[in-house]
């Protein structure tokens, strides 16, 4: 569909349209908004990870001056709800089951039990303290492997804790292992990680004049308005969700955060209500990255050819199922990584425990798999006595190969290129800077899909309007988490219509005012809404070119659009303003809407896992050099580089921003970040205990963009937002293992664990 | 709780208010409409609430409002406007140092405090100066680039 061959705007390092407002502090995030008469909501949270609720007495709280209402599960019209996470199509087994407020029992420490709305936050907090809850503590289960035992305490009474399992069966692993010269078996794990976006969960809800509800909330999924309507027992048409600019999401604002509570409190009181969660609430009680336990068995020939991989993946779903089956399917499909393996057997399980519900988190399960398979690749190379890069190169997937799920790859896999570029930047492993130092170098390759699983039948819609003065308005329901979701659409329209960015305005993220564009998750907005917006802009373009061809008496193909003009080859031109006026006078549409549909498919076969699951993947490589202080156990990342084939970089500056941000996040995952649950209670409750990388903890980050222009997004783009994280943790972990001459298989690799490993070694 | 009178300036404009002694400067500023001062943790760990207090960078969540008595506060909105950006703001825009933007106001304030004292910092000094400001989006690379470029612009303008 691309008729535009030479880019004037695509590929340029143009500042985002909203950077100036953000630099000057104008942007009104969820908490920066207030309404007259607004009151404040607070949440009473469970004091035990697993307990029956014997009695809740709200009478004292209700009597407190300034309290407007106190709500428990009895006040929620539909308390047990099923979330479809904004998907277009119902698919059995993939819906998340929630309870808005705990009912009968609490399943995790911090689970919401009651809500209060009061005149001030202080009064609301006092009222929370006055609510009496009598609990009968139950035995909890905090390890997913233990929770799989039929005798383990049940999170959902009378039901198995295993809430989803997947299989992949490709070829014959027994035959594969029989052919193998070397077999390597290992176990790995990945820990609980918090999204640590800097903006805590927040929003304001109010009742409109017509009695409908509006919620202005920091969310990646405005389409939760459907679930909110269901909870309130009112038609979907009577709930509106608006998202302002989001102060970071990373998947943590994909699940419902405070929407239900806001809606219920506004509904019951008739007042505008604000809820802002504290950092402690965010860190301790909100969804986390699923921890995994992995078992890997890999069979290889002497020459380094992988002949078989068998893997077992167990993830901790936490106390409610939510997105866990989906995340698990990502891990399952990604379990062997970007390698060509003829015989594959994967068994994966996600298991309820008494932890807070695990949820979506950048890479959505593909990253955890990468942590495991890329460590295993190094271990196999070591056993073979082969260079880990050479071993990977021997097995990288390429165009035309078949993935473990049977999908034949139709486009470029540029892993040889990305790996070579990373290695070139890293150079030779340097000498240690002192006598008590160890230096290590590691690489890892990874992949992650962009676009949602194809059995969800994903769609996006967008509108583009050429105004009568030649400026442009885009209306598209994207949620902008800060990665440039809006800005990329502006840049696409600027290219198609020849309008400078400063004359383009985008209206986004409002279920009542913008076309539904789907979730800002799954690295799907550039792909889905980028294509929808491109198609809408192309309709406008075609309409104005048709009009111009009438005016100039030349064929449309003879016309070009640039610099706010339509030009003929012989030097005649008409401004966009004049052509817009001419079109309007003749009733030619200047306001065009388009829908983009992803490829549609079905759920893969449950017994074999065979079937296309994703529209496409993005691939890339990270390399890291670390230095370890053997006296303190401290790891310094000295050098890091990541290269990804992004298809086409709509804006290289923003692509680099994603790669760099992914690198810093991945360093934290490998080395410092851990929510550390002990018996269901988070030990990290502030950024003093939950350590994310600061500017002095990361080195200069080298981001390398490869462009093979054969992605499914506009102008051949591939998605980048998630994949940029996947290979970073294993690259750092492999570098540490190289330095130590020993692998620490528990994450994060803290100084303490390093000192312990050094002691064991000596 | 008894309220106490407080007089101070924000971005050059004088304010006379009455506040309880337990109110933080962050909460007071936000209640006065300075929503560019962000509440990321309210424990002094993230730096999103940084402002200049008589030219010195402070976490306003750890500063009591009454400590601002007679002082001059500068927030990011006091540095430049959308029409006329401060060079640091301009560099943040130009170099792609802003993603979600939630850390940006505090980050720019820390950069301003650094460049006021050290107009020609090394990249290491820049990193040190913003090490109290967390950013989850950018990996800090383009923020350091932007501050380095702003320093150059500001030196050349003198």
Automatic annotation (TrEMBL), chain B:
Gene3D superfamilies: 3.10.20.30, [2Fe-2S]-binding domain (1.10.150.120). It comes from the Archaea. Keywords: 2Fe-2S, Iron, Iron-sulfur, Metal-binding, Oxidoreductase. Pfam families: Fer2, Fer2_2. Residues 4-79 form the 2Fe-2S ferredoxin-type domain. SUPFAM superfamilies: 2Fe-2S ferredoxin-like, CO dehydrogenase ISP C-domain like. GO terms for molecular function: 2 iron, 2 sulfur cluster binding; metal ion binding; oxidoreductase activity. Transmembrane segments: none annotated. InterPro entries: 2Fe-2S-bd, 2Fe-2S-bd_dom_sf, 2Fe-2S_ferredoxin-like_sf, 2Fe-2S_ferredoxin-type, 2Fe2S_fd_BS, Beta-grasp_dom_sf, Diverse_Oxidoreductases. The keyword Metal-binding applies. The keyword Cytoplasm does not apply. This is 2Fe-2S ferredoxin-type domain-containing protein.
């Amino acid at each position: 569909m691309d008729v535009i061959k030479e880019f004037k705007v695509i590929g340029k390092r143009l500042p985002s349209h909203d950077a100036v407002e953000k630099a000057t502090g104008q942007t009104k995030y969820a908490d920066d908004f207030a309404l007259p008469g607004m009151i404040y909501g607070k949440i009473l949270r469970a004091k035990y990870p697993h307990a029956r609720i014997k009695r809740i007495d709200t009478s004292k709280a209700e009597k407190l001056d300034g309290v407007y209402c106190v709500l428990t599960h009895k006040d929620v019209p539909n308390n047990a709800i099923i979330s479809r996470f904004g998907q277009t199509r119902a698919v059995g087994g993939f819906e998340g089951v929630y309870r808005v407020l705990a009912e009968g029992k609490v399943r995790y420490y911090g689970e919401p039990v009651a809500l209060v709305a009061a005149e001030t936050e202080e009064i609301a907090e006092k009222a929370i303290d006055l609510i009496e809850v009598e609990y009968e503590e139950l035995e909890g289960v905090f390890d997913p492997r233990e929770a799989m035992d039929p005798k383990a305490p049940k999170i959902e009474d009378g039901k198995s804790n295993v809430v989803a399992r997947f299989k992949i069966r490709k070829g014959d692993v027994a035959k594969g292992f029989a052919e193998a010269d070397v077999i390597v078996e290992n176990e790995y794990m990945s820990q609980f990680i918090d999204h640590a976006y800097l903006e805590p969960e927040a929003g304001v809800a109010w009742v409109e004049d017509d009695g409908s509800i509006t919620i202005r909330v920091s969310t990646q999924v405005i389409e939760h308005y459907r679930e909110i309507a269901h909870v309130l027992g009112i038609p979907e048409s009577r709930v509106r969700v608006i998202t302002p600019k989001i102060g970071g999401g990373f998947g943590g604002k994909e699940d419902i955060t405070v929407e239900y509570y806001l809606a219920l409190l506004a509904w019951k009181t008739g007042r505008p209500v604000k809820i802002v969660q504290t950092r402690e609430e965010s860190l301790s009680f909100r969804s986390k990255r699923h921890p995994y336990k992995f078992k890997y068995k890999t069979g290889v020939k002497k020459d380094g050819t992988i002949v078989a991989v068998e893997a077992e993946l167990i993830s901790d779903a936490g106390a409610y199922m939510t997105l866990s089956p989906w995340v698990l399917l990502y891990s399952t499909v990604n379990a062997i990584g970007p390698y060509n393996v003829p015989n594959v057997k994967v068994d994966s399980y996600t298991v309820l425990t008494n932890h807070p519900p695990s949820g979506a988190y950048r890479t959505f399960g593909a990253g955890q798999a990468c942590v495991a398979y890329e460590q295993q690749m190094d271990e196999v190379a070591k056993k073979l006595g082969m260079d880990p890069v050479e071993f990977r190169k021997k097995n990288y997937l390429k165009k035309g190969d078949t993935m473990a799920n049977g999908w034949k790859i139709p486009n470029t896999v540029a892993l040889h290129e990305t790996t070579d570029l990373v290695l070139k930047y890293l150079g030779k492993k340097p000498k240690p800077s002192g006598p008590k130092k160890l230096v290590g170098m590691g690489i890892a390759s990874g992949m992650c899909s962009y676009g949602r699983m194809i059995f969800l039948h994903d769609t996006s819609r967008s509108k583009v309007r050429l105004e009568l003065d030649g400026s442009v308005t885009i209306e598209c329901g994207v949620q902008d988490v800060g990665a440039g979701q809006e800005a990329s659409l502006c840049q696409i329209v600027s290219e198609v219509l020849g309008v400078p960015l400063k004359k383009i305005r985008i209206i986004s993220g409002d279920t009542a005012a913008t076309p539904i564009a789907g979730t800002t998750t799954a690295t799907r907005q550039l792909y889905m809404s980028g294509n929808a917006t491109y198609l809408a802009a192309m309709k406008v373009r075609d309409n104005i070119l048709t009009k111009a061809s009438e005016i100039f008496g030349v064929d449309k193909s003879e016309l070009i659009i640039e610099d706010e003009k339509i030009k003929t080859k012989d030097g005649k031109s008409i401004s966009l303003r004049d052509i817009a006026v001419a079109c309007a006078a003749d009733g030619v549409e200047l306001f065009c809407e388009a829908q983009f549909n992803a490829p549609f498919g079905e759920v893969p076969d449950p017994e074999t896992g065979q079937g296309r699951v994703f529209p496409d993947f993005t691939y890339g490589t990270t390399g890291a050099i670390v230095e370890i202080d053997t006296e303190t156990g401290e790891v310094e990342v000295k050098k890091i580089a990541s290269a990804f084939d992004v298809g086409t970089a709509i804006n290289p500056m923003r692509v680099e921003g994603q790669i760099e941000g992914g690198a810093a996040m991945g360093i934290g995952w490998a080395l410092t970040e851990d929510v550390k649950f002990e018996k269901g209670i988070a030990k990290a409750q502030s950024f003093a205990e939950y350590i994310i990388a600061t500017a002095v903890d990361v080195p200069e980050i080298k981001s390398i963009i490869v462009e093979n222009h054969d992605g499914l997004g506009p102008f051949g783009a591939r998605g980048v937002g998630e994949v940029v994280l996947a290979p970073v943790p294993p690259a750092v972990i492999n570098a540490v293992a190289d330095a130590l001459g020993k692998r620490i298989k528990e994450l994060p690799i803290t100084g303490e664990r390093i000192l312990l490993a050094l002691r064991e070694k000596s | 709780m008894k309220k106490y009178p407080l007089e101070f300036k924000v971005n050059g404009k004088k304010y006379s208010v009455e506040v309880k002694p337990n109110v933080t400067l962050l909460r007071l500023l936000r209640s006065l409409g300075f929503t560019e001062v962000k509440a990321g943790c309210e424990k002094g760990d993230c730096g999103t609430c940084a402002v200049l207090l008589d030219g010195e960078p402070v976490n306003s969540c750890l500063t009591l409002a009454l400590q601002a008595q007679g002082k001059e506060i500068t927030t990011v909105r006091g540095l430049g406007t959308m029409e006329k950006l401060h060079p640091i703001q301009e560099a943040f825009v130009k170099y792609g140092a802003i993603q979600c933007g939630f850390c940006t106001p505090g980050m720019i304030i820390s950069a301003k405090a650094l460049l006021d004292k050290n107009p020609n910092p090394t990249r290491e000094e820049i990193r040190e100066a913003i090490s109290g400001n967390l950013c989850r989006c950018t990996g800090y690379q383009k923020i350091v680039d932007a501050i380095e470029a702003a320093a150059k612009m500001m030196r050349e303008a003198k």
